[in-house]
Design a protein that fits this description.
Elements lengths: L5 H7 L4 E3 L7 E5 L7 E10 L5 E10 L2 H6 L4 H16 L1 H17 L1
Antiparallel strand pairs: 1-2, 2-3, 3-4
Amino acid sequence: MPDQPPQAVQEKYPEAVHLSEGASSSCMGIRSPSRPGFELVIVWRIQIDEEGKVLPKLDLLTKVPLQALELDKNGVIETAPLSFRTLLGVLGIEATLESLIKSLHTEASN
């Protein structure tokens, strides 16, 4: 993340964010405390174009139990990566990640 490295996000939300490879990880897992086995994984790469401009590329992967997939009649889990890309375009990287983390934790608090 340009303004906030993944480690800073993990420090802010230690109960929700997991960096599988430590501080230099290219994957960040966001877990729901109330839904064991449910995890959103953000994978990012940094690309540099011919002019030297740095372009972060983020993708969302979902890890959900098979039972949850079977119950998802509206295809929310299947369309999550596309919805994530849409959010990135509208909110930006930092606000999108904050939104995902907070939505999982708001659900857990209810």
